[in-house]
Design a protein that fits this description.
The protein is mostly helical. Among the domains are: 159 residues, no CATH class; 145 residues, no CATH class. Helix content is 63%, strand content 3%. The protein has a 5-stranded antiparallel β-sheet with strand order 3-2-1-4-5. A hairpin with a 2-residue loop joins β1 and β2. α8 packs across α10 and α10 crosses α12. The longest helix has 20 residues. The relative contact order is 0.04. The N terminus is likely disordered.
Length: 727
């Protein structure tokens, strides 16, 4: 019966990507849509119905959906275990968000997801509700097909998993020679034996069989003949006999596949397989231990429950392995209090079993409440104290504290540590969304401070660099406002470079000056790690964004941008060209001062004005000479006063004492026809004297301060300020 189920064909004619799809399997639009769908799913699980956070996340996902479809009528996404496939290409196979979404679809027996145009908000909401339903609930409702038809969703289509589709796997195929004879590893030969029967032969032309799909197909096909004593043993022995000794790498891959297969079997079949594997000696003790070690904790516990008191049918070695990796002690073992921390943490982290963990303090309160005569004595204060222990924020905080404590005290392995890292990430996201930044920063400081294993630190920081996290933090700038700026700044600086693109995107579109200033400061703190992204955007057409980018280039001293700055120095927008010219002068670019002198001497008024705005960055005698000549002219018309005012400011930026005699002559000049304009120019000139060396400018300040009028009063104020600074 199982062989028949395994050999059924699947209609692949409709599993194609629309011919017009312009993106590859790593399409940023597709990845963004999956991230947004994941966020919407988590928000609908976290927040009450009708909450604005849910509405915002649904709207964001709809926008991403429309962007992905574009002009296309259909995009087809395939599901293979924990991998999403677009055509024959995996979609960012090692991206944890993509893998998580694939597992959610797979657990609900969705083998193909079809995106059609015209998705409505209500259809998307119903789709997210289905993704949030447990697998058991879907089974009770008649399966995914019945649930889907009842939902009324038409713009999204699904095709159920066909367990005969076994040509996809997350793992690369063993290369020729890795297994000794090129006939596939032990798992592949075992899968063939399941399909064809012992000594059936055959080959896998489309790749290794997916272990989880094989297990589920076996579960569905019934248990004919396999639950008898040693039902799996002949198949394992046959697979072992048809191969040669495998390399450690190949055996490690086979063990991972066997672990995936065993974890998806029914408890009864799982018990039979483990018993047969040990009794037949087809798997060495070390390999069997590796397989059990990789099983999820809840699977191990489920198997022990199936065995129950009837332990005669299971080898003692297998039983001991199950007990060892479940955290459940043997009946004759005694453990100190607190030794069950790994088991408790694993229980908390199980997707559908968080309610199984009850803190001791909470349980003690419940017991006291149930004692005779205690209920009336509880009182309102006791009730309030009890309620605080089940507040969502309190639960998340305590779970985070326990998880960090656990990680500091134990060493784990790859998949196990990845699960802990993901749990820390989820708790952190919760704190960010609820504005509990101090709680989140406690987690971040513990992770980066060396208190947790290095591997966990790397995995957590990698998650903190994903687009979802970056957007969550930056959204907080507008959600929570200035009171959270310092805390958000600490998050950004700690994580660093992954925030660069998000900050630049928002810098380009923000209308708030305070937000733009905040983002510029954070990019400057990230430092040279942000340089590639900044340089890449110098082709942007928005002048205000370009000006900010050039200011960052000056602040970070990115002299490698000289070639691009030369082009931007001739930009049509004067504010961009001036900023680019300033940068060239700061970097000592050859020919920049020569070009500046030519522009200062130009007969074109706009060219001269633009050059005067950046002349203060130059230090050459030629530039000083041109500026002095501008002040020495006798005209004081409105246009001439504008030129002289800019020249005075430029000389003040340079601060060369050689300019003081020229300024003194200007301060003594007279024009009855332009008295008001000339007085304003003289006041501006006195203000610039603070920029010159103190000893050199004091005589001129004293001379002007001795005069009457506004000019003398301003000089006296400056003189008094210098004397106070000196004292």
């Amino acid at each position: 019966m199982f062989a028949a189920c395994l050999k059924k064909s699947v209609d692949m004619s409709d599993r194609t990507i629309h011919a017009g799809t312009p993106e590859t399997a790593s399409s940023p639009l597709l990845v963004k849509l999956i991230r947004d769908l994941n966020v919407a799913r988590r928000n609908m699980r976290t927040y009450p119905q009708g909450h604005q956070v849910i509405d915002v996340s649904l709207a964001t996902a709809l926008k991403s959906y429309a962007s992905l479809l574009g002009e296309l009528d259909e995009v087809v996404l395939l599901v293979a275990g924990s991998t999403l496939m677009l055509g024959d290409q995996p979609v960012e196979r090692f991206n944890p968000v993509m893998r998580d979404f694939a597992r959610v679809l797979h657990e609900r027996e969705i083998g193909t997801l079809v995106f059609n145009r015209g998705l409505t908000r209500e259809e998307l909401r119903r789709f997210i509700i289905i993704l949030g339903s447990t697998r058991e609930k879907i089974y009770r409702a008649g399966g995914i097909r019945a649930v889907w038809e009842k939902s009324g969703i038409t713009s999204l289509g699904i095709r159920e998993i066909r367990y005969d589709l076994l040509g996809m796997t997350e793992e690369p195929l063993s290369k020729s020679g890795e297994t000794g004879n090129g006939a596939g590893d032990l798992w592949e030969r075992f899968a063939l034996a399941l399909k064809n029967g012992p000594a059936g032969g055959g080959a896998l032309t489309e790749g290794a069989l997916d272990p989880e799909l094989v297990a589920e197909a076996l579960n569905l096909s019934g248990q004919d003949g396999l639950l008898t004593s040693g039902g799996f043993a002949p198949l394992l022995l046959d697979a072992l006999a048809r191969g040669e000794a495998a390399s450690p790498q190949a055996m490690d891959l086979a063990n991972r596949r066997f672990a995936g297969f065993v974890s998806k079997l029914t408890p009864a079949m799982r018990q039979q397989f483990l018993g047969a594997a040990w009794a037949s000696r087809a798997l060495a003790a070390a390999d069997l231990e590796s397989i059990v070690r990789q099983l999820p904790a809840e699977v191990v516990l489920e198997t022990l429950e199936e065995i129950g008191p009837n332990q005669e049918g299971i080898p003692q070695f297998v039983l001991q392995l199950l007990r060892q990796f479940s955290g459940v002690p043997s009946s004759d073992e005694s453990q100190p209090e607190g030794a069950d921390l790994p088991t408790r943490v694993r229980t908390i982290l199980r997707e559908h079993a968080s309610e199984e963990f009850i803190p001791k303090s909470y349980q003690q309160k419940l017991h006291r409440m149930m004692e005779p005569g205690q209920v009336p004595l509880l009182g309102s204060e006791g009730v309030q104290e009890l309620l605080e222990t089940i507040d969502q924020s309190c639960i998340e905080k305590k779970t985070g504290d326990m998880l960090l404590l656990f990680l500091k005290s134990v060493e784990g392995e790859g998949e196990e540590l990845a699960g802990y890292a993901r749990s820390l990430y989820d708790i952190g996201i919760y704190f960010l969304r609820t504005g509990a930044y101090p709680e989140f920063l406690n987690i971040l400081r513990e992770v980066t401070g060396g208190g947790v294993p290095l591997q966990v630190k790397e995995q957590v920081l990698e998650l903190f660099g994903c687009e979802e996290f970056v957007n969550e933090v930056l959204d907080g700038l507008e959600t929570w406002g200035k009171p959270r700026f310092n805390e958000i700044a600490e998050v950004i600086v700690t994580v660093g470079a992954p925030f660069t693109d998000g900050l630049l995107d928002r810098l380009a579109g923000s209308e708030s000056m305070s937000l733009r200033r905040f983002m510029m400061d954070r990019l400057a703190e990230i430092g040279t790690a942000a340089a590639p992204a900044i340089i890449k955007r110098l082709s942007d057409r928005r002048w205000y964004f370009l000006r900010n980018l050039i200011m960052l280039i000056r602040q970070l001293e990115l002299s490698e941008t000289v070639e691009k700055l030369r082009m931007l120095a001739h930009h049509g927008e004067r504010r961009v060209s001036s900023e680019a010219f300033r940068a060239l002068l700061e970097f000592g670019e050859t020919g920049a001062e020569e070009e500046l002198v030519r522009d200062l001497e130009s007969h074109d008024r706009q060219t001269r004005l633009a050059a005067l705005e950046v002349a203060g960055m130059a230090r050459s005698p030629r530039v000083l000479g041109v500026l002095h000549a501008m002040l020495a002219t006798s005209g004081f018309s409105g246009k001439e006063l504008q030129v002289k005012g800019l020249a005075v400011q430029a000389l003040g930026e340079i601060g060369d004492p050689a300019s003081l005699p020229v300024l003194e002559k200007l301060l003594s000049s007279v024009s009855l026809l332009h008295l008001t304009g000339l007085t304003r120019l003289k006041l501006d000139t006195v203000s610039t004297l603070r920029r010159y060396p103190g000893e050199a400018s004091l005589p001129l300040l004293r001379k002007v301060a001795s005069k009457r009028g506004a000019l003398g009063r301003q000089a006296a104020l400056l003189l008094r300020g210098r004397q106070e600074d000196a004292s």
